[in-house]
Write a structure and sequence with these properties.
Layout lengths: L1 H52 L3 H22 L2 H14 L3
Amino acid sequence: MENQLLQKELDKITTVHRGSMRSIRLVTNIRQQADTFHCDLNKEVYLEFNRVLGRNLKEEFVGVLDGLCPSLMEIFKRKTGRIGKQLADLVQQTTVG
């Protein structure tokens, strides 16, 4: 009797495990497809931006970001706590000196 009860419980666990493994494989597959789609979409956006405006989107973005660096650095310096410490460490790593 105990063996039958134990076997039933073991069968339930095995079924749940199989379902979980199928779910994990499904989620992994979906994530891989999404990553591929995201990559292709980025490429299409860059190409379309370049075609319409005749400029490189990545270079435009980085150029604008460079202009904002002094303001961002001031914001980073004013932050406190754990985030402030992480930002200070990051600033120290990127500071040329």
